[in-house]
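User: quick one, sequence for these tokens?
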């Protein structure tokens, strides 16, 4: 069985929440596997990230290099290939950086590539069976991948239940010697931070998020009314922003903002990977009249109903409960 690695991203010394999900996906490939984590970067931020990583991995391979201080996929591909054993399997999160890094990495490894996997059905010999979604999540495609020469697989955030820590401390192995000098054709210039807008949805405990199912700009008021009684904020998927029904600052997803509320109400949202990439944890409640909507596959609670009818009823019930509790 090839060795399994999880490439873990980090920011300001904190690892991404998807790390434990990647570990869970690795166990789906091989129930006996204890994958190793690979972290790249430089300086105190990399050291802090390695220390903050939960004990869900057999080892942490730290790849420090001054050229990797900024996450440049072109450089990281070169570095990772130099440290990986032959025929390795590498799992990455299917988000901005993983999508940039993974395809070229598979080419350099001469390995198979599968993107946006939502399920791993098992291994038969050297053939790995996976499920990914096509056409914005409308079709589930069952694919087979020959891993005899290794594989690079991106995993959809939220598709796998995070693996619980197996230890309180994981050995850190430095791999800088194997990397050597790194050069790239592109270089980091600056980071432009998006404007927060009237409400910072990244700081909210509860989000009432609306999608195409809201149908009309005037209907957004229905979600706003529910958000008011819940003490929440309104967010949305990209079609709502494209229609100019809500500001860009309210958009959740790969081309919007990443949020981590305690409760996320997805109202009339189909559940495309681009939107789910922006939801990091929390209790996900999906409300959609299409019972086959992909979002039901990752939701903690799924409700099949028309949001234009269900949300006003929910708002009324919450008001009623609050009135009773106030007496």
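Assistant:
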């Amino acid at each position: 069985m090839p060795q399994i690695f999880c490439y873990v991203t980090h920011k300001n010394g904190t690892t991404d929440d998807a790390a434990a999900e990647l570990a869970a996906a690795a166990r789906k490939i091989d129930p006996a596997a204890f994958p190793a984590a690979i972290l790249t970067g430089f300086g105190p931020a990399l050291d802090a990230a390695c220390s903050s990583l939960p004990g869900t991995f057999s080892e942490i391979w730290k790849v420090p290099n001054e050229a990797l201080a900024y996450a440049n996929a072109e450089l990281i591909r070169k570095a990772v290939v130099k440290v990986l054993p032959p025929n390795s399997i590498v799992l990455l999160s299917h988000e901005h950086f993983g999508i940039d890094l993974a395809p070229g990495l598979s080419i350099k490894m001469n390995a198979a590539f599968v993107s946006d996997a939502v399920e791993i059905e098992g291994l038969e010999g050297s053939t790995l069976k996976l499920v990914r979604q096509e056409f914005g999540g409308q079709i589930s495609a069952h694919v087979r991948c020959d891993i005899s020469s290794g594989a690079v697989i991106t995993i959809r955030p939220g598709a796998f239940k995070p693996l619980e820590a197996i230890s309180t401390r994981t050995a850190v192995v430095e791999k800088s010697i194997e990397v050597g000098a790194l050069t790239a054709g592109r270089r980091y210039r600056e980071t432009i931070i998006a404007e927060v807008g009237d409400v910072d949805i990244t700081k909210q405990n509860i989000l009432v998020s609306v999608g195409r199912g809201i149908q009309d700009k005037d209907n957004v008021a229905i979600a706003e009314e529910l958000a008011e009684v819940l003490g929440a904020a309104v967010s949305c998927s990209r079609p709502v922003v494209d229609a100019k029904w809500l500001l860009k600052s309210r958009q959740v997803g790969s081309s919007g903002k990443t949020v981590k509320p305690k409760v996320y109400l997805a109202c009339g949202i189909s559940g495309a990977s681009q939107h789910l990439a922006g939801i990091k944890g929390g209790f996900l409640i999906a409300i959609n009249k299409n019972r086959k909507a992909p979002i039901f596959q990752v939701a903690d609670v799924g409700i099949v109903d028309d949001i234009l009818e269900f949300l006003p009823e929910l708002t009324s019930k919450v008001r009623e409960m609050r009135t009773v509790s106030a007496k």
